[in-house]
Amino acid sequence: MDAYGVVGNPINHSKSPKIHHLFAEQLGHQISYSKIESTMEDFTKTIELFFTKGGKGLNITLPFKEAAFKLSDSFGQSAETCQAVNTLSFSEDGRIYGESTDGLGLIKDLENNDIYLEGKEVLILGSGGAARSVIPSLHEKDIAGLTVCNRTIEKAIKIREDFIHLREINVLEGLSLKNHYDIVINATSANLNNEAPEINPDVFNGSICYDMGYTYGDTFFLNWAKRFNPSFSLQGWGMLVEQAAESFYIWRGVRPDTEEIILRLQKETEN
């Protein structure tokens, strides 16, 4: 039985094992898929040990996406552009291939909910691996403008510098935000600590608010943001399933039916 898993910290909340087992059930594949907690100091050792034991592929989540990029021997186009990886596969010659499926997952989820990005002003909160992973896909959709806001302004400036070849990115500190944005995307870890980001909440008024995080019921971030009158709010269940399907395709060569899986998960969140 082929072995897969997801590496993160914390990792207990992850729904990736459930999703990938649903994919396997749908397609008649036999796989195992486990949660693996690591630390930044032990991350390389964790990956090497998994593949040494015969593991076939790994998903990578917070806070290791940039570290996974550095560990990869070769990359897909998306990973090479955003310099962050959420999917690793191991070849027979011992090389590690890294790709990022997050951006594609985000776009598919937005469009599945009739949210189209062309000509829109987009604000991303956060400047870690999660933010990096979706910038190329946002750019490909001909957005009107992109702003990155981060608590540590130096990290946001680094993103602007790293993507200068792709597009102009505005960089602001949270309390300096004054413009209206059509779509606000939360790529911070606010939900893990139940801490609202330090931003001017007026940016949510009339905006579409998208949280890349997910939970049963509303996330902490969405509960907070809804106080400031967004026109629509959505959390990242759909993105999670869509990016997972792309990972499954990389590993197994077949793409699952995501609509069926999303509907099953939505029913669970409502119960």
CATH architecture of the largest domain: 3-Layer(aba) Sandwich
Distance between the termini: 33 Å
- CATH homology-level superfamily of the largest domain: NAD(P)-binding Rossmann-like Domain
Inertia-based shape: globular
Number of strands: 12
| Strand and helix order | EHEHEHEHEEHEHEHEEHEHEHH
Provide the CATH top-level class of the largest domain.
Answer: Alpha Beta
The CATH topology of the largest domain is what? Answer: Rossmann fold
User: Ranges with pLDDT <50 over ≥5 residues?
Assistant: none
Strand fraction equals 15-25%
Going across the major beta sheet, what is the strand order?
2-1-3-5-6-4
The total tally of domains equals 2
Number of helices: 11
What's the mean pLDDT score?
94
Class of secondary structure makeup: alpha/beta
For the biggest sheet, the summary is:
6 strands, mixed
- Helix coverage percent: 25-40%
Question: What is the CA-atom radius of gyration, in angstroms?
Answer: 18 Å
Q: What's the structural blueprint in terms of helices and strands?
A:
Elements: E1 2-8, H1 16-27, E2 31-37, H2 43-52, E3 57-60, H3 65-71, E4 74-75, H4 77-82, E5 87-90, E6 96-99, H5 102-112, E7 121-125, H6 129-140, E8 145-149, H7 153-162, E9 170-172, E10 183-186, H8 190-193, E11 208-211, H9 220-225, E12 232-235, H10 237-252, H11 258-270
Parallel strand pairs: 1-2, 1-3, 4-6, 7-8, 7-10, 8-9, 10-11, 11-12
Antiparallel strand pairs: 3-5, 5-6
What can be said about this structure in brief?
By secondary structure, this protein is an alpha/beta fold. Helix content is 39%, strand content 20%.
